[in-house]
Amino acid sequence: MDVDSHGPSVLQAKPTTTLDWDAVAAEIGGELTPSSAQTAIGGLTATLADWLAEEPQTQQEILETERDTDTDVRVVDNLEDPMDIDELASGTSRPRGVTIGGNPDWYPWPDRETCIFDIMCHLPRSLFSDNQMETILWCLSLLGIDNKPSLSTLKKVDELLQEHCGVESICYKGPLGHIYYANDLAAIISQELANPLIRKHLRFYPEDAGTHASQAWHGRQWLRELSPRIASPMIRIGAQDFYTYEPAKLADGRVIMPIRWFTKGGISGTQVFHGEVWMLCPVVTESGQRSYIVHEYKTIWFTAAELSLAFPTMIATFAASRLPDLQILIGEHLSQVTTRSS
What we know:
By secondary structure, the protein is an alpha+beta fold. It has helices at 21-28, 36-53, 59-69, 112-121, 130-142, 151-165, 185-194, 196-199, 220-225, 311-317, and strands at 169-173, 179-183, 234-237, 240-243, 248-250, 255-265, 271-284, 290-303, 307-309, 329-333, 339-341. The termini are far apart.
């Protein structure tokens, strides 16, 4: 091929070859069979053309055709007009307004329906939009479900529940000036305490398990080193409440001041309350006043079954029992040689 080096080269396009199917059919002495796709399209076209050319069927004819072609489908007879079909009845509407605790069985929700919808709206990682909830409520209305809450009612209930028993997020400012939020720990603990499924698994007192340690409440830090002022301050024996740093009386007549409560396994394997206490010693001052001195250096341990009288009962009966007034403590012994006045 000669190429002119002084001018631009021109590429010649190849002519398009067109196959004459009629000529090919004449040469082979017959017609070519169309492909399966062409056959299917032709069949659909012919069927559609025939259907358009026919007279429209009446409702009764359509029902009879469905009955003949599908015996498993129930068809309603005697329908001459499509408008004769009954409309779907809406469910009974609920009264206006929101009342928390209206039904005690579903407290704090007003009723069962609102409870179910509120839980559905707050499923973890499966939140519903307002449009989706409106669609669900509309479907339930068409199905005749009664007492459905509206979307505005659900939002109002959510606001009331958050105010009544929600967990507040508290804003804090870090040492570098950054802002962060943390959920209120006290509110979380209060909700756990109010949950009967959780409450029975919570432990509030350390356990003296000896050398065995498999749980947090077996630790020595909680049993011996934790300040009694932030540990569990009270136990209930019968109808009496015994508090730490309040004088109490044992069954043998000794007057004590509990400073710590803990549990210990009994013979039957059940946990029994025990106490760590200081002894109170009655004294008479130079002026003749009778009172007590707390012997902090003298610590004893006892079982809660040995407790006899709590502080309020002792205040009401100390005069009849000829005991000093327990509301007056004149001092405390830190050791056998050190005394500190109150």
